[in-house]
Amino acid sequence: MKDSQIYNLLIEKISEEQILQNESMKKHTSFKIGGNAEFFVKAKNIEEVRFVLNLCNTNKIPLTIVGNGSNLLVKDNGIKGIVLKIDINNIDIKEVIQKDEKYAEITVGAGVPLGKLAQILSKNSITGFEFASGIPGTIGGAVRMNAGAYGSEFKDIVIETTCMNADGEIIKLSNEDQQFEYRKSVFKEIKYIILETKLLLKYVEDNSVIKEKMDEFKKSRLEKQPIEYPSAGSTFKRGSDFITAKLIDECGLKGYSVGDAEVSTKHAGFVINKGQATAKDVLELVEKIKQAIAEKFEKQIELEIEIIGE
């Protein structure tokens, strides 16, 4: 199908401002790397998500779902078909009483940035989300990968997620249904599209403790992570019996680079983009790291970032 035909189908239900053609994915990932998406479309509600899904199913157009692009490496040849960004931004806070204690049940759209939600919850004296305040992603991506920091993970606070299956049907999954594991969930195995999530958090009387914790985490990130450079966050998963960043450091790979892709000198667990890194650079560097660790420690390491595109 020609691009002009796809475009004409899209504008039947999607506003022209939400449709971009031959769009550089460098603009939509925290790594600032990647080729062009043939179509980059923002969906602002469930009806728009279903429309694009059905359009792709009917016309055999490849469909790629993204959030904030903070955990992605897009390959240099770009992405065929439609890249659909879930931009659903509803936030609803409901007070509930459990065992004589006051809790907040928060229903939040998949496109809501974690930092924005953290600020709203802090103002409402709701605790338990501080760990996510500095993660540069959205709710949908955080649930999908069971994002975590400072000893907490999304599996600890998610009670239900509403998603769409490949046929456009709405499904609600309980915490157990989502099969949360370390940096993993059912959404990595089954192509459900996350639409919104329900969280259960607790109220506190004094929200200054929330702000203090968020400030403490922010200070820690500034000191320990190379946030001054584009990256996709922590590049590798930790092992069952080892800390991957420590092994990379012990291999003497801090500062090692391929092109403009470099192992951060501040934190060996991060591959950063020093300016003009390509996906090819990053992937070559990743293989060098894997090989070095396998040879020195006889350990196999896994990527935490996801690779998409051609």
Class of secondary structure makeup: alpha+beta
The span between the termini is 19 Å
Mean pLDDT: 95
- Indicate the CATH topology of the largest domain: Uridine Diphospho-n-acetylenolpyruvylglucosamine Reductase, domain 3
Describe the structure.
The protein starts with a helix and ends with a strand. Strands 6, 7, 8, 11, 12 and 13 form a six-stranded antiparallel beta sheet that branches. A four-stranded mixed beta sheet has the order 1-2-5-3, covered by helices on one side. A three-stranded antiparallel beta sheet has the order 14-15-16. It has three domains: 3-86, Uridine Diphospho-n-acetylenolpyruvylglucosamine Reductase, domain 2 (2-Layer Sandwich); 91-224, Uridine Diphospho-n-acetylenolpyruvylglucosamine Reductase, domain 3 (2-Layer Sandwich), CATH 3.30.465; 244-308, UDP-N-acetylenolpyruvoylglucosamine reductase, C-terminal domain (Uridine Diphospho-n-acetylenolpyruvylglucosamine Reductase, domain 1), CATH 3.90.78.10. It has 310 residues and is an alpha+beta fold. It is globular and about 50 Å long. It contains seven helices and 17 strands. It has helices at residues 3-10, 46-59, 114-123, 139-144, 208-224, 244-250, 279-297, and strands at 19-24, 36-43, 63-66, 72-74, 79-86, 91-98, 101-109, 126-127, 148-149, 152-153, 158-164, 170-174, 193-203, 257-258, 261-263, 271-273, 306-308. 26% of the residues lie in helices and 28% in strands. The mean pLDDT is 95.
Secondary-structure blueprint:
Blueprint: H1 3-10, E1 19-24, E2 36-43, H2 46-59, E3 63-66, E4 72-74, E5 79-86, E6 91-98, E7 101-109, H3 114-123, E8 126-127, H4 139-144, E9 148-149, E10 152-153, E11 158-164, E12 170-174, E13 193-203, H5 208-224, H6 244-250, E14 257-258, E15 261-263, E16 271-273, H7 279-297, E17 306-308
Parallel strand pairs: 2-5, 3-5, 4-17
Antiparallel strand pairs: 1-2, 6-7, 7-13, 8-13, 9-10, 11-12, 11-13, 14-15, 15-16
